[in-house]
Amino acid sequence: MSSAAFPVAPGPGGGLLLFRYSGVPVILAPSWWLGALAVVVFYAPLVGDLMPGADTVSSIALATAFAILLGISVLAHELGHCVVALRLGLPVRRLRLFLLGGLAEIARTPRRPGHEGVVAAAGPAVSIVLAGICGIGLLLIPSGGPVWLLVLECAFANVAVGIFNLLPGLPLDGGRMLRAGVWAATGRRGIGTRAAVLGGWIVAALLVAWSLWGLADASPDRWLRLGVCVLTAWFVIAGAGGELAAEQRRTWPEGLTLADIVRPVLQLPAESPVADALAAAAGRGVVLVRADGVAAGLLDEVAARQLAERSPFAPAEQAAEPIRPESVLLASEPGEEIAERVWETAAWQFVVVDDEGRPSGVLRREDLRAAIEDRGRR
């Protein structure tokens, strides 16, 4: 659960685009409506306990207001992550609100433990500040009325979002802070990830235990507690597993060098017949160069074979994959940074250049995956 507004267009990956912050799309996923409906259904019966005498319409209205305030609280929380990440130069792909909360999708892993810790702490800090503001409001507003209850709901929503996300387990913010601390102490991010994944499993187990306790104790909110806790525990377990898998992909195997997996590079004129370019490749990476010396791209062998079947004398440039800045790797880069770039970039082959910018080879995603899996089996 970690993590004005008019829907104007479908957002990336599905959902409604609420707005953009510094170019980052803020998306309301379809599943958010299901979560809001569940909150209304389960929370409306509890309104009477907080405001005796409230009729059914008032209870539903206040429950709906609570669902909206909870969504706004999560949005503010995620914007805290987003603002700090952008200030540190970390690109944010999008901010998404969904069934169980929200997620600011940061496109690049922080290079320093301090950066990860600050970005992770920003969300709970925003939630705690908002809860404090609402707490002051409760002292100034006469108690018992609908306005007082709305402010109380907002305070509760921010306290819940802030405290829950401080729990020390991935993928929660507290887990990221734990990882940053262990990373800073040991100098190894992988150790921090494993510690925070273990924390995530413990958090999930405690959530399930708390929900079962509510059932055994016949708590008034037992069914709401059960539904929220089971779904959240599933979210935490799945997120922790995803973080562990991502860390394993990011880890550069000991003893592996880039030279072990990079393919030799062959430069060919961009106007070469595609059939000849395929024949000349012979397992090497092919950089297609135009007459003016500018690289047209890397030969995409799948597209090239399809083109060669239709028109073998077509220019190989028609089957070229553009060379973008993010698909260029420095041979001197640390292995973990190379692995991270390969997994996070939407490309299947990368040009490796030396310190003077000359192509020295081509790295394919499949070759890196095979090398990591092979080392993992040893």
How would you characterize this protein structure?
The chain has 378 residues and is α/β, with parallel strands linked by helices. It folds into two domains: 9-166, no CATH class; 258-377, CBS-domain (Roll). The chain contains twelve helices and twelve strands. It has helices at residues 31-50, 56-87, 113-140, 146-165, 173-186, 189-216, 222-250, 258-261, 274-281, 301-310, 335-344, 365-377; strands at residues 9-10, 16-21, 24-28, 92-98, 101-106, 265-269, 285-289, 295-299, 320-321, 328-330, 349-353, 359-364. Strand 11 (349-353) and strand 12 (359-364) form a beta hairpin. Helix 3 (113-140) runs antiparallel to helix 4. The longest helix has 32 residues, at 56-87. It is elongated and about 85 Å long. The protein starts with 8 loop residues before the first strand and ends with a helix. The model is unreliable at 3-12 (pLDDT under 50).
Percent strand equals 15-25%
Report the principal-axis shape. Answer: elongated
Distance N terminus to C terminus?
38 Å
Structural class: alpha/beta
Q: How many beta strands in the DSSP annotation? A: 12
Topology order in helix (H) and strand (E) letters: EEEHHEEHHHHHHEHEEHEEHEEH
Strand order of the largest sheet: 1-2-3-4-5
Low-confidence stretches: 3-12
Task: Describe the sheet with the most strands.
Answer: 5 strands, mixed
What portion of residues is helical? 55-70%
Report Rg: 26 Å
Average pLDDT reading: 86
Integer count of domains: 2
* Count of helical regions: 12
